[in-house]
Amino acid sequence: MFHVVQYQPLRQIAQNSLSSMCLKLMLSRPVAFAQIWKSWFSSHNLVGNKNIILMGPPGAGKTTIGRIVGQKLDCPVIDIDDDVLETTWNMSVSEKLQDVGNEQFLEEEGKALLKFSASGSVISLTGSNPMHAAGMQHMKKNGIVVYLDVPTAVIMSRLKSMKVDRIVGQSPGISLKDILQFRKQFYKRWYDIRVLCGGDIAPEVVAEKVLDAVKRYQNSELETFISTRSSRSGRSMEKDSHKYFSDVVTEGLAPDGGLFVPERGLPKFTAGEWQSLIEATYIERAQVILERCIHPADIPASKLAEIIGTAYGENFTCSKIAPVRHLVGNQFLLELFHGPTASFKDFALQMVPHIFAYCIPRSCNYLVLVATSGDTGSAVLDGFSRLHDTDKQRIAVMNFFPEDGVSPIQKSQMIGCQKENAWSVGVKSDFDFCQTAIKQIFTNSDYTGFLTVEYGTALAAANSINWARLLPQIVYHASAYLDLVHQDIIPFGSPVDVCIPTGNFGNILSALYAKMMGIPIRKCICASNENNVLTDFIRTGVYDLRGRKLIPTFSPAVDILKSSNLERYLHLIANEDGQLVTQLYNQLENQGHFHLRKDLLEKLQQDLVAGWCSEEDCLAAIHSVYSTTGYILDTHTAVAKVVADRLQDRTCPIIISSTAHYSKFAPAILRALRIAEIKQNPLSQLHLLSSYSPLPPVHWGLLETLKKKGNEDHQVCAADMSMLMSRIETLIQNHFM
């Protein structure tokens, strides 16, 4: 058996390692020696008895990088090819492959791994080791597997320069590129950490990235969350009550009424890392980005891959998931309506239920509360209804929507999406009441405590106040930019503007987060309808609800006056001054307005510009675009199109977020297209639209939902807190007891 002797005790190694010069340094310059000792100790503590196992395709640089990492850590370095296989076989790897053939070679290679044992070492695997399951399971028992993720085009170029034209597993008629793509499934199965490696990155830089990634992997306590309303002094006194990703997914709203944000901010990607994703699929991009935002201690990479695959694998009608389509001039549409419920909310809400089910403790039932201005409701209901049956028994969802404040098709959709663990309640008020009611319920400790003690049920949130809702939205903003680069519309690094129809500020905040992470977004254009409180605020710094009443419009998803996620952005530009945020929102709650300081307004206006669109202009834009291109915008996208036309300076491309499919708003679309006969039945409206052979076609998911019989009833409730709380209690009794 090939064996590397385990480390001696740290103190003994230190004694053996110290030279006489170090001893003199310790005596003569104790401060300098202490710094050296601290560096030495931290490096060895990083590895301990665990191995760092480097995995990746041939040409990824595993051997070279392994040696550099080993030197930095002063620990043994083992190359499986040279130090294990060739020693075991007494012949070169190429000779062995020629001798036994592909299939037997993989088996022999796996057997050698099973006999191999080491600890506290840096190990460089062969490119084909991950294809032997038993061998890799053996290696993972005492190792952290680091995947050196190099773009296939870069690997092809490197292998060509090395004059390698054939690798293990490659048969006649199968190209080198095909076998490299085939192997990726095995790499993705085994790794704990991914390190992105671009084309021109030096091995020394990759080695540093490996060490940083391992440090992150072993230090989950560094990735904590704080409330937007917590003070710095309060944080230092509450170090024992850290909140991690799993906690904030479960809890939704912070106990002080604020929103959770990562204490150390979001991860930054280098230009090279973004460029390595240009050729990637949407699912691959999502995996890479979300791995950096969610610590593996909360969700391991393999589980995250499973969740992403489930969310986007078969539930979206377009294989590109979030395609970018040229509209006119330098305007591009980011189509976010190909999910099962035809809105951008599907991107988060096909994922969040599975994240939630993984993160929550098994000892408690959970009721997820959500308020919707239209699209969120059906997306939440659909997403949670797709959970495994065992999860449905312990997780239910209750959706509150303004009974008379959504489109007929949206209401039909929410009612049609009700399942055994998912219900809709129409509230005789507007969205702002629904959202405020949920916040008040969450911060009512007597009520939530009663539900936990009496029924063993905890409450959770699925609105964009929940941090997990925002992360998948960052992905599609980043992916849209990478698609423009991939289509040769722009070179990487050239700026774009984005224009987003904005209500609760979550979607546009995700674009701002993508910008912070390294995507070259110049300006985020906030597009409002006649409920233009955000437009006024961005222009003046005054958030003023006094005398404002919500105006029902053709674009109900942005019929919002209190934009919850704005709080996260204000916390960001105020340098995490939770006391200031608390002051602003207390003033908004008590006096109906607040005024932003001049310096903060200047910061805000570096990121954001804003405009609004009338109902007439919205319908006119739908008609104009259809007349000139044959493409039908939904009412929210039309709002963004009008504002983009007014505010863009045409010096760079602009990506307009198409947040919903026009099918959801058939009466307004039929009116915009000047079709005289508008039938009241939602299904008939969709059939009428379909007869015009529109682009894109009528959404299949909506048609299927509206065709279903049953589940046509839903509860209706007055705008009264005690009645809402009573409905919640009744649902808990019926489902969990």
From TrEMBL:
Pathway: Amino-acid biosynthesis
Keyword vocabulary terms for this entry: Amino-acid biosynthesis, Pyridoxal phosphate
GO molecular function, one term: pyridoxal phosphate binding
Classification via InterPro entries: P-loop_NTPase, Ser/Thr_deHydtase_PyrdxlP-BS, Shikimate/glucono_kinase, Shikimate_kinase/TSH1, Thr_synth_N, Thr_synth_N_sf, Thr_synthase-like, TrpB-like_PALP_sf
Domain of life, per lineage: Eukaryota
Presence of keyword Cell membrane: no
Domain Threonine synthase N-terminal span(s) in chain numbering: 239-312
Necessary cofactors: pyridoxal 5'-phosphate
Residue positions where N6-(pyridoxal phosphate)lysine is found in the record: 345
Cellular component GO terms held in the UniProt record: cytoplasm
Gene Ontology BP term (one): amino acid biosynthetic process
HAMAP family reported in the protein's UniProt record: Shikimate_kinase (MF_00109)
The family this protein is said to belong to: Belongs to the threonine synthase family.
Name this polypeptide is given: THNS1 protein
Organism of provenance: Phaetusa simplex (large-billed tern)
